[in-house]
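User: Here's a protein and a ligand (4'-deoxy-4'-aminopyridoxal-5'-phosphate). What would the complex look like?
Assistant: Let me lay out the input and then the predicted complex.
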Amino acid sequence: ENGLVSESTQTSAALFKKACKVIPGGVTANIKYFNPHPLMMEKGKGSKLFDVDGNEYIDYLLCYGALILGHGHHKVFEAVTKQMMESGTTIFGTPHKMETTMAEKLIELYPGIEMVRYTNSGLEATLLAIRTAVAYTGKQKIAKFEGHYHGGYDQVLVSVNPDMDRAGEAAAPKAVGESRGLPDYYLQNTVILPFNDLEATEKILRDHAHELAGVILEPIQGGIIPANQDFMTGLRKITEELNIVLIFDEVKTGFRLSLGGAQKIYGIKPDITALGKVLGGGFPIGAIGGKKEMMMISSARGSRDILTAGAENTDKQDPLYHSGTYNGHPTILAAGLATINVLEQEGTMDKLFARTQLLRKQLEEVYKSYGLTMQTLGMGSIFNIILGEGNIKNYRDMSQSNTKLRKQIDYELLKLGVYTKPLNRYSMSVVHTEEDIHRTVAAHDEAIKRVLNK
Ligand code: PMP
């Protein structure tokens, strides 16, 4: 597979070569690479990306879903510049009003959130959620689902994209490390569960209940494979019974499936929720929110002064350590609040979902017209194209699809001005137009034609 070899991306190729001399692999996150070289982008505007060769793309990567308002939305721009102009600096390193305003907003929107703390990324948010679960229960281990991603750190870099030869039985998956350099400790202390298999999940949870502090999951795996309602209801019931903290990782699904995330759609209250991406309006952020009794562990004795200032000392034990120079960054919170404000305007989310549905439907028709077995899979404003049949309910089903053909089509799409990283999912923004959809569908038609030589 040669990937994208094109006369029109020569500057990208040259700049990437230069990058490789000083940056390992030429990329700042491994996921950004594709053959033979990724495209170097220069500018984003609305639903479009422009590369260094001046090529224009309709952007469906949207920074892995973060840019729900597209590139450079004027409301975000205004909020950020106002914040910076008026405050004279970007960060105070002190408490400030907007931290409370955003927390109140999240509490209003997310059924499982009663209190909030901020971090700088989704990764830090899930890490803090897990630490809170361990602190709250006094137990040591964490369970996660096979195929679920929660950020690039040791404890959860297990069985995200495992090789089937090493992954064991479907109903009792084995922990497989995703990186060199992971201490064995995490393989031994992370319990792996099969997504959407309630019976097997319940059995594993009961076997490990005495040592499990929490279960973390993406309620919609990868933003595209939903948990069954029965599975979710069952999981909530069992975790409650066994005193296992239920953590929803809504870094991807937050604000994208509904303003209240997946939990609002399922009608399920997780104990702790991790947020990120859209929350920062295009800037780096993360947050956790959850039950007051769990969140309050962070305040127990964070500093002795907190006690005399009247904060509740809930358990007289040492506090949970949570810090971060840039936590609650005012500029980023301003961008996030402006983003939520736009999304809350009457009809905005409905229109976004309707456009996504329209694109999915038209893409399905195009693939079908070439006799290809294809389905779109997803919810709300995220979906992916699966070249394969059957009901896909977890990582193992997903790994059966025809990724070779999909990749070939994706490389052609890049030449035709439709951007997503090959094989990546599609995220939509509120500024993608019907004209964009029209052009995207036509590009798929042409790409398939080229690949099939028709
Ligand atoms: N959890 C999920 C579900 C994610 O999709 C991501 C990012 N792709 C993360 C956690 C990590 O977030 P970040 O990249 O901001 O650290």
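Summary: Residues 64, 121-123, 126, 149-151, 218, 249, 251-252, 276, 286 surround 4'-deoxy-4'-aminopyridoxal-5'-phosphate (CB under 6 Å).
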